Amino acid sequence: MSISTSSPRLHIAPNGPEFSRIVLGLWRLGSWQMSAQQRVTFLEQALALGVTTIDQADIYGDYQSESLLGEAIALAPHLRDQFQFVSKCGIKLVSNNRPAHGVQHYDTSAAHIIASAEQSLRAMQIEQLDLLLIHRPDPLMDADEIAGAFRQLQESGKVRHFGVSNFTNSQFELLAARVPLVTNQVELSLLHMQALHDGTLDLCQRLRMAPMIWSALGGGSLFRPLSEQDERSQRISAVLVRIAAELDVSTATVALAWILQHPSRPLVLTGSGRIAAIQAAVLATTIVLSREQWFALWCASAGKNVD
């Protein structure tokens, strides 16, 4: 199937930003071996597909991915006004690029949150983040301290909105009781269905808050040769192939459409430097699976029929 389409956009929370439903994930940017001009071309191709939201984090690419994006932005300054920029903070990696980090750990202190957000702005060569997320839940998280840091960043015009990533419902509700949050970025795929059953997507739907989904294709495990897949992946792959043939689309498009169909209105992050993969993701926003098709995939993943 060949459809000329553009990623739809939605407000991710009642008072949240408007993002494209397909989000350009750039955590592997450094491994794509693109020149700065090639990065500009890639960004422009994504824009042409309606993909206007970029997902980053301070630690991505061993603390280099944001700077690589910034080099492209410097070459094409008009891109600053055409994208929405998301970043994350709160993890300190042991890295040659951060020699002061003796032990890998979480840091959600106000000082680190503010310093990290400011460094992300410098690295990406932009003036404002549309969304800043706490990357992982921190056992030493002080909700009042984080809320204070968020308010300071917002009042200074450096960050518009705030959210979290990989938080449980209770962790989300703790922080949301102190400061407005607009999303929880979580893992969901046919190989990782926990968010469907642990209340994460239920909470998102109750709050009318769209989750952001990472590893939506299960890290590519479903698209390896069958001989390299385990029994569960083979079951899922067989159903993906059948439904893809029925709809005349790729198996990746079907796997993404399965996520996008959830009523919490998920946004899906991509992770590929191939524009064809971005096209397949955008196409998934146009696909509506029948309930039988959707549950056939659920059953293949669960290894059982619904009760």
TrEMBL record:
Domain NADP-dependent oxidoreductase: start-end pairs: 21-294
Listed InterPro entries: AKR (IPR020471), AKR_Detox_Biosynth (IPR050523), NAD(P)_OxRdtase_dom_sf (IPR036812), NADP_OxRdtase_dom (IPR023210)
Name of the protein described by the UniProt record: Aldo/keto reductase
Gene3D superfamilies attached to this UniProt entry: NADP-dependent oxidoreductase domain (3.20.20.100)
Species of provenance: Undibacterium umbellatum
